[in-house]
Design brief:
The complex is a heterodimer of chains A (about 400) and B (about 500). With about 400 residues, chain A is of the alpha/beta class. Chain A contains twelve helices and 13 strands. Chain A has a single domain, classed as Alkaline Phosphatase, subunit A (3-Layer(aba) Sandwich). In chain A, strands 3, 7, 8, 9, 10, 11, 12 and 13 form an eight-stranded mixed β-sheet that branches. In chain A, strands 4-6-5 form a three-stranded antiparallel β-sheet, with no helix packed on it. Chain A is globular, with a radius of gyration of 21 Å. Chain B is mainly α. Chain B has a domain of about 50 residues. Chain B contains 25 helices and five strands. In chain B, strands 1-3-2 form a three-stranded antiparallel β-sheet. A two-stranded antiparallel sheet of chain B has the order 4-5. In chain B, helix 3 packs across helix 4, helix 12 packs across helix 13 and helix 21 packs antiparallel against helix 24. Chain B starts with a helix and ends with a helix. The relative contact order of chain B is 0.10. The chains are: A alpha/beta (about 400), B mainly alpha (about 500). Chains A and B meet through helix 6 and helix 7 of A and helix 7, helix 21, helix 23 and helix 24 of B.
Amino acid sequence: MNRRDLIRAFAASASLTVAGRVWAAPSTDARLLVVFLRGAYDAANVVVPISSDFYYASRPNLGVARPDGGNPNAALALDANWGLHPALRDSIYPLWAKREVAFIPFAGTSDDLTRSHFETQDTIEFGQAVGSSRDYRSGFMNRLASELTRVKPISFTDQLPLIFRGQSQIPNIGIASVSKPGVDDRQAKLIKDMYVHSNLASSVSEGFRVRDDVYKSVSEEMTAANRGAVSPRGFELSARRIGRLMREQFNLGFVDVGGWDTHVNQGAATGYLSDRLGELGRALVGFSEEIGPTLWRDTVVVVISEFGRTFRENGDRGTDHGHGSVYWVMGGGINGGRLAGEQIQVAQTTLFQNRDYPVLTDYKAFFAGLLQQVYGLQPASLDRIFASVKPKDLNLV
Amino acid sequence: MVALPAMIGIQPAAAAELAPRDIAMLDRLTWGVSASSAAHLQQVGIERWLQEQLHPAGISPLPEAARAQIEAMPDVHSFPFDIAVAFDQQGKSANQVADPEQRKAAQQVYQQAMNDRARQAAGRTILRALYSPDQLRERLTWFWFNHFNVHQHKANLRVLVGDYEDRAIRPFALGRFRDLLSATLHHPAMLRYLDNADNAAGHLNENYAREIMELHTMGVGSGYAQADVEALARILTGVGIDFKPEDPKLKPELLSQLVREGAFEFNPARHDYGDKNFLGHPIKGRGLAEVDEALDILSRHPATATHISKQLATYFVSDNPPDALVQRMAQTFQKTEGDIAAVVSTMVHSPEFADTLKTGAKFKDPMGYAISAVRLAYDGKVILNTLPVQSWLNRLAEGLFNHETPDGYSMVAAAWNGPGQMMLRFEIARQIGSGSAGLFKPNEPNAADQPAFPLVQNSLYFSHLRQILSPTTLAALDQAVSPQDWNTLYLSSPEFMH
């Protein structure tokens, strides 16, 4: 059985449904992390349409050069039409060579054209059709958690985001700023004692357990750092922590990272966006290293953003709010090393409203297809997560 | 036992000892029991206290130290329209700076100024919640803001939320529902938040119309159809915002239809003058008067009476309020044409309300938790900085003006008592219990931190609060090693969470 078959095998054997919930297959333990790039990252400069003359005409200052072995600032060839931003040379590009990352261009919200960060983020997190009567207390990852057994979900955020709100109780922890708890062990024990006969007893004891586990994991990392290990910062630090926690305790996670709203001076091969990308790439590789080679084969990481940006650069060497984006799917067992989903030639005539990438793969159909493959969810289960959505099978796992 | 002194005539009835359920009622209808509020309740008696709260004569003054903090805020001395216009100008000029880096800096200054205005507005809300004698009105002000929720981070709402609370919500919190609904409809914060400012004939935006029916009045699934949403959206066309001093250009025959009031504008050129059919009522197309007619229909609809009553009972009585109670409240609502004080009076005089006072069933949401802790710990000693409270509320995910979606914050325990959330409460209990927590350090450069210590184990504790503690809680408190430790444990106890 090759590595890609592992997640698949899970899907094939997971048809046993009890009380509407899918039993996780015994031999594998799929892990899913969704990374939300808030602010709408400039997808066209990350997965670059290198065969498009129109791209280079549209971005005289921002364009990333066509692949060229002698030029360190050139895009890295993915295939004849697409190249990867050079800031990802040492992180994501090697994963591409190992077929552990796939890109889905022209992805986004086909029913939300507001180009508003807040509204489109909400739309994606709800995973409910725009214009219908929406349940504001129900995010799609919460609905997913409700459909799975043996699921150990967690949101690595300061507050519980919309995507995880709903019927299932999901813990959250601000992963960037884990500090020593102020309530000490003696107080914790006294507090737990007070709740022994309360209906909150399990919530309180579970809370102290997660709190202590997370802190223990982080303090081990600090001990390692004190021994001279290079200490990562920012999102890379968070992602490594997430990797350790998902290796040991959780299998369904969400994290968001901001700073992608690049209206001004975003840079091209180098500069602001390049720095953010470099950090993101190191973070995702750091995550895979921490989760370890064995579990990485059963892990799927999805990177999304609310929309893409204007295809043409603006007057400030930046880009404005657009429409279609590029999603990433990563994992040791995925069918990667390719661009998945429907694609079109990148030209002025194919732009949406003559300014943005169109959306050819809707986020709901994309996630429905992916979840179906990863978890072997039945149609009824999928329909409870994304009502009336036809899953799009991109053959990713 | 409790009524004994009164029965044997030692004291007048009004000064009777307070029973545990009286303290529980006080706690439930205010932002938390404190020694002074309990003393006042004992002094005036239950029924008179309720009348004071349900029918306050005007806005009762705040303690001087709280009033002075509010007076020092610039917004309370300006006309809200002027503030919004000034910010609008500042935003526009920031966008026009030629150099991109300087523009970015100017935009940041603009954004920070707006953040500052929202923080000041939140500061006013907190000071009133802590110290207003009209406690029930303040509870209802929070409730109605949440019911007619707007989110501060949409567009320029940070400069509008304070005015929205002060002019559209608080004055009507105990008044007629119809007036409250109308006040929110006429406020630019709502018109911007739910996009009605973009709703025009030929370019319908149904967002606000849908939420009026789904959330603000009748409630989801209460019998209206998509056609009614569309009809209401058409009725609402032209209802919007205008910050420009000059009137919009209009054909002469439409001029008399133009309505402007501050930033509110009814622009007849944007209105759909066709006839409509709304909830079975034919509505003659004639301008802004259609909106009044629609609000009358909605306010008198039985589904609205039931929906509003259920929301109130969920907030004050129980996560699953008994149907019979909701129905009685709805009857009062209909009989009194939506008199909110009358509906609340029906609720507090009900046996179902009394029942929940015995069990202490209602879990405090973060706002209830944080404010009640500060009220209990410091009572009349007015805090000098509300930012720590704002930060606790944000960390507990119930920040003021900070709920993104129009449904408002959840009012049921399950939304607030998860494992991570309980941990945060204990951490915040420790901060509040261990010292003054920054509450007495004014938010000014070089301000000195005034000495203060939370007095949780006070006379009220010994006379009343202790009586309802469980043996397990008492046993834990007995092991406290310091006053700080004792405070932390008490504020973490299951009893204080309810």
